[in-house]
Amino acid sequence: MATTLTIADAARVSGISSHALRYYERAGLLDPVDRNESGHRRYGDDDLERIRFLTKLRATGMPIREVRRYAELIKRGADSHAERLALLEAHRRAVVAQLEETAKNLDLIEWKINFYRERMEQG
Amino acid sequence: MATTLTIADAARVSGISSHALRYYERAGLLDPVDRNESGHRRYGDDDLERIRFLTKLRATGMPIREVRRYAELIKRGADSHAERLALLEAHRRAVVAQLEETAKNLDLIEWKINFYRERMEQG
DNA sequence: CCTTGACTTAGAGCGCACTCTAAGTCGTAT
DNA sequence: ATACGACTTAGAGTGCGCTCTAAGTCAAGG
């Protein structure tokens, strides 16, 4: 029994607003979702899985247009595996670099916090 | 010999465009910078230090309006140390949480990378 | 004297990623 | 029959953080 959700339920499950889900589809981040007889979207497990992954890509700072490129590679089928790999590896490097930079910035912020803490202790 | 830089030099040194430096000042992230006789800004070491730190705050995702709040606390003087500390500690918690989430998302992305790698190896 | 170039201001414009609105279509409950 | 509520579309609006433009001032060099 494959689950199929309405857009409202897909929104609840994914944490993405139904407005944003339609926007993602229009923008080509998601393949056109199946419709029921009255033209309403029905989200299947595969759609939800796609949404989950694209949400991770977005949450790690991948811009919309690059997620779209990734979606286009998926649409092109199995011969695009190498390109998908390259895209994800490039993104991985960017995320790792961003993590390192943030960690470094955090050090400085913590140094400042300690500075204020010591000031407080001395009145 | 205290250095005082033109806005163009401050931009080069800080990596923030001169447009953005003026914007930061207008927006209250920076105290009004000293001017020379002809009204041009002259950036001192203290200004550059402030710019460096605010850049770290921005780079770690602190919104403009919260950097402004921090700047206002500095303007209020020494009696705002406790509030500055609280603001920075709250930000620290947010950054740590963000780092953890990003690391988790990175795991999933790397899982996907390995998935494609194995697919590639098997042709 | 005049041009050049770096600065000044106020304010318009831009790219991103949604977010919301208006007007319309369904299926169901009263 | 009709009202309700969830959906549909196209397209307008929003918030953020700059980024750029236009028009003007000023000091120095040719």
Give your account of this protein's structure.
Two copies of one chain form a homodimer. The N and C termini of chain A lie far apart (67 Å). Chain A has a two-stranded antiparallel sheet. Chain A is 70% helix and 3% strand. Chain A has 123 residues and is mainly alpha-helical. Chain A contains five helices and two strands. The mean pLDDT of chain A is 96. The interface between A and B is medium-sized, with 31 and 31 residues. Chain A binds a DNA duplex (30 and 30 nucleotides) through α2.
Shape of chain A: elongated
Secondary structure tally, helices of chain A: 5
Give the H and E element order of chain A.
Answer: EHHEHHH
Unreliable parts of chain A? none
Averaged pLDDT of chain A:
96
Structural category of chain A: mainly alpha
The main sheet of chain A comes to:
2 strands, antiparallel
What share of residues are in beta strands of chain A? under 5%
Tell me the number of strands of chain A: 2
Name the largest protein-protein interface in this structure.
A-B, 31 and 31 residues
Helix fraction of chain A, binned, reads 55-70%
Largest sheet: spatial strand order of chain A? 1-2
Rg on CA atoms of chain A, Å: 21 Å
Give the oligomer, counting copies of the same chain as homo and different chains as hetero.
Answer: homodimer
State the end-to-end CA separation of chain A.
67 Å
